[in-house]
Amino acid sequence: MYMIETKDLYFRYPDGTEVLKGINFKVKKGEMVSILGPNGVGKSTLFLHFNGILRPTKGEVLIKGKPIKYDKKGLIEVRKTVGLVFQNPDDQIFAPTVKEDVAFGPLNLGLPKDEVERRVREALKAVGMEGFENKPPHHLSGGQKKRVAIAGILAMQPEVIVLDEPTSGLDPVGASKIMKLLYDLNKKGMTIIISTHDVDLVPVYADKVYIMYNGKILKEGTPKEVFSDVETIRKANLRLPRVAHLIEILNKEDNIPIKWGFTIREVRRNLAEYLKEKC
Length: 279
Ligand SMILES: Nc1ncnc2c1ncn2[C@@H]1O[C@H](COP(=O)(O)OP(=O)(O)OP(=O)(O)O)[C@@H](O)[C@H]1O
Fold this sequence. Notes:
Bound molecules: adenosine-5'-triphosphate
Order of helices and strands: EEEHEEHEHHHEHEHEEHHHH
Distance between the termini: 51 Å
């Protein structure tokens, strides 16, 4: 059974734009999945189907093996299981203070006050935003707002967390911190789906990668399988991780046959092996 599965999913916006054209996507419990694709290919549109905000024009979305029911009760159930962090935190944050914003979801679940307070405290600590409880969200920086938006979803304790470009607009340290937080949550068993343009981070964190292009899935597999298919990566207007690009150039242009790798750790190991054999 998959946590989320889409079967031959099509979606057309009311103005006639057909954005999703037969998407088959699956995520297992405990996986960390990245969706990569250039601007406008439909990543956000797909994510809005994962918790029932959008309804397919054709095809279906299953949560833990059951098709989403688009009535009030069905949607509440889905949103308890799947938490979605929007690309733009301003679409998500609306309460007068950070604390109230993060508390909004748990309060709506009807949890006792003590439990809500505990969840708010823990969620703000997890994203490194303790001390900001009483600040109005519109006084926060873009990166801080992003963390508060993530805290709001964490406080709901969903089984799956879906994040639309969680590192966009963050400085390098902020981006690494968010990815480390997601990695730690995943190691504790949370299923995580992210969309990103950051191809350097994907092989470090993802178990599985989907390449989206023009409303379709062009390729899926482990980071190694996906990034080894250089032709598809370039066809989808993406690029290789920098370290893999360096190996490609060394292989092709300098005739130095170092084994491919997609993270700094892998490339370092392959380079060290090559140098040991040479010396
Ligand atoms: N409400 C809407 N009505 C009509 N078309 C829309 C609407 N929202 C998005 N689109 C169009 O759907 C397409 C896919 O948009 P979407 O935001 O899903 O792409 P994306 O892959 O998430 O892009 P990005 O990487 O830039 O965030 C785009 O062509 C966009 O213009």
